[in-house]
Amino acid sequence: MRTTMMTMAAAAVLALSAGATTATGADNPRVVLETDAGRMVLELELERAPLTVCNFLGYVTHGDYEAGSFFRTVVSATNDNPNPIDVIQAATPRGSDDDSRPPIPLERTRDTGLSHVAGAISMARDGPDTATSSFFIVTRDTPSLDFGGGRNPDRQGFAAFGRVVEGLDVARAIQMSPADGEEQLTPPVKISAATLIGDVPAECRP
Fold first, then answer.
1. In angstroms, rounded to a whole number, what is the distance separating the alpha carbons of residues 127 and 112?
2. Is 125 helix (H, G, I), strand (E, B) or coil?
3. What is the signed CA dihedral for 93, 109, 76, 172, rounded to 10 degrees?
4. Average pLDDT rounded to a whole number, residues 148-160
5. CB 74 within 8 A of CB 81
6. CA angle 28, 34, 39 (to 5 degrees)
7. DSSP code for 55
8. In this predicted model, what pLDDT tens digit does every residue of 182-196 receive, in sequence order?
9. How far apart are CA 89 and CA 73, in angstroms?
10. Residues 173/163, Cβ–Cβ less than 8 Å
11. CA-to-CA distance for 106 and 114, rounded, in angstroms?
12. Could you read off the pLDDT of 49-103 as tens digits, one per residue?
């Protein structure tokens, strides 16, 4: 009887653990990025940032990032800005100003509850509601990129929409790769593939 009770208790603990895993994002879509520097796996916060995630997945599933690159690195220690950041930025082969699709509304961190901690994925932009395909990965906590932060003069922040769950060391290696005085990687780090694991979420289908 005691053995049976212990077995039932263990099963209950496992069930609770499984539930906790689901609650923390086990069902979130994931994208694998293959680059010349190594592999990264991105987990996307569909529930919190649906517009941004669906936009990103649109580019992924159409193969738009293939033959693109991580072309820019910013290192806080050498960044000439009152609000220095640590990021690497990627683009499609058409460049960071790719206008092949309409820009999307800005999902502010004030509203999503996400933040630009180490490993966060976010959208590059000029003014609010101008992001298209170019995204960046944060390599160290950078709160100045959140809503109210000073990195952008409009203080609206950037749209964080996921995080690196595998390969943050790859992102950090890319960040420390050779670059010129304009923060351009020399050479850029090529993206050979960006692949969604599983099916496109129903929320992102036409």
1. 19
2. coil
3. -60
4. 97
5. no
6. 75
7. H
8. 999 999 999 999 999
9. 6
10. no
11. 13
12. 999 999 999 999 999 999 999 999 999 999 989 999 999 999 999 998 888 899 9
User: Mean per-residue pLDDT for 156-181?
Assistant: 98
Contact 159, 107 (CB under 8 A): yes
Calculate mean pLDDT across residues 119-148: 97
For residue 72, CA distances in Å to 26, 48, 113, 202 come to: 31, 27, 27, 33
d(CA 197, CA 179): 32
- Residue 85: closest CA among 166, 181, 158, 36: 158
Q: Give dist(CA 2, CA 48) in Å, integer.
A: 45
Answer yes or no: pTM beyond 0.85: yes
At 204, the amino acid letter reads C
Q: Taking a C-beta distance cutoff of 8 angstroms, is the pair 22, 34 a contact? A: no
Query: What's the rounded mean pLDDT across residues 22-51?
Result: 89
| d(C-alpha 93, C-alpha 98), whole Å | 9
**Percent composition of the chain: helix, strand, coil (DSSP 3-state, to 5):** 25, 30, 45
E strands along the chain, which residues? 30-35, 38-44, 69-74, 87-91, 120-123, 135-138, 160-166, 184-197
Q: Rounded to the nearest 5°, which phi and psi values hold at 8? A: -65, -40
Pairwise CA distance, residues 127 & 134, whole Å: 14
